[in-house]
Amino acid sequence: MVAAKNDSCYSAALDEEAEEEQEEDECAYYSSDEHDGTSPSECPQPPHPRLVEERFKVGEKLGSGSYSEVFSATDKKTGEALAVKMEWQKAEKTDKLLKEAELHKELQHGKGIPRVWWSGSQGEYNLMVLDLLGPSLDDLFKKHKKFSVKTVAMVAKQLITRLQHVHKCGILYRDVKLHNSLMGVGEKGSRRVYLVDFGLSKRYLDRTTGDHHKCQFEKGRGIAGTVRYSSPFLHEGYDASRRDDLFALGYVLTHLLRGDLPWLNISDKHKKVRNMRIGKRKSEISDEELCKGFPPQFVSYFRHMRSLGFYDEPDYRCLQDLFDNVLEEERVEYDYVYDWTEDNPQDGRPVKKRRLGK
Fold first, then answer.
1. Which of 27, 329, 337, 344 is such that its CA lies 20 to 30 A from the CA of 222?
2. Does the predicted TM-score (pTM) go above 0.90?
3. Which letter, b or e, does each residue of 224-263 get, where b requires 16 or more Cβ atoms within 10 Å of its Cβ?
């Protein structure tokens, strides 16, 4: 959930998720004063802990979100660089971090999910110590403006796997976006895309019965997550289900390929009006037009999403096969050499394109 400051702006993997109907914030880790995590009360915020659980030494501040702040940290036992997320218990938006930590712990056995080293309370703060990660896809995207089909296909395969794991645990992610996908660090970690920030996640399967939560529809309801990537089903007023996480991923992948989305510049002083206009624009553009100039598998991806009912399980294997076919037709290997690898080849291998033999 956290990124090394020297690799990125530590951008918005943090917590825009404090409200059920959520405003977009393009750099929530380094956000403006309106998201500084402070309380409107007259009670001053006390100094944050400098040592957590007598083990994790807190360093410099890396960023802040709507209800928490993130600092660098060092494990005194191992010397490992980590990060600690802090939530002041008396802030206006509070009582969220420990709930996020519990969900996080249930998911962290999957690949590409950061490890929670410790979570709990100390003084007036709730705390969560996590792995330190590298730049987000948003950081890399801002530098490169758009990505190659090969890079997007490799990213797609990993993020489909991450979402499949989250769904298998009975949880919806609900905030797929560039800011919440971070690269790892180190020789092997830098090849892997991590899914971070589970502040908006919620269960869709009942823990006791295993039943799927009931479909609810409310026209004009607020949209949880980042509206630019929200699925058409959410705009229509349906509650979120597994299809919506993967639909949002489709919009993220298209954004990476195109360098833009047709509704990015839509704005309005009233959030609901803006959301309605964005939803209308999404409904007006066909999948073929959105994916024009790119392999047809991207259109097939959206067609599968549109075919799913609220309770349906996505065909994750079919979706993986689509991007395997993309790589084969592009005659490139899944070799973890991304468009940005040349910028900082942390894995130590030469940067070159390797062709598939026929």
1. 27
2. no
3. bbbbbbbbebbbeebbbbbbbbbbbbbbbbbbbbbeebeb
